[in-house]
Amino acid sequence: MNRTLPRHAYWPLDYGWSQRGGPWSELTDVMLIAQTQGDEGTAQALADWVARQGSEPAEVDGCVRDVFYAGGVRGYLDKTDAGATLYLHSHGEDAFDSLSHYSRQIAKLVQSRGGMPLTWTEARHDRADHQLSWP
């Protein structure tokens, strides 16, 4: 059965984001955040998706940590007792396309597991934290 995702279940492609949240260029580390609160099933679906991706060490805010990579996206997952936060990073001319594509993939997985929809947040381009150094 092919079910259509509700528009709010994923981050719909929006090139206008390049004009919001500080200056943007093809070198900018663009970050999309997916959050879930109080739904262990959704948090586990995110953890399972991350575990299936390739991973390598990278520098985030000056500290080395493992990050996953999938196509034009890199990121990491932080889980707590309250939920999970998935940080998706991309850059280059296809940054926004890549983020939208993977938000759809992730939302489909969450939906297939019966999880609650994620909250998607566009991070500012000029933010001071969660800076991923791209190889």
Automatic annotation (TrEMBL):
It comes from the Bacteria. This is Uncharacterized protein. It comes from Ottowia testudinis.
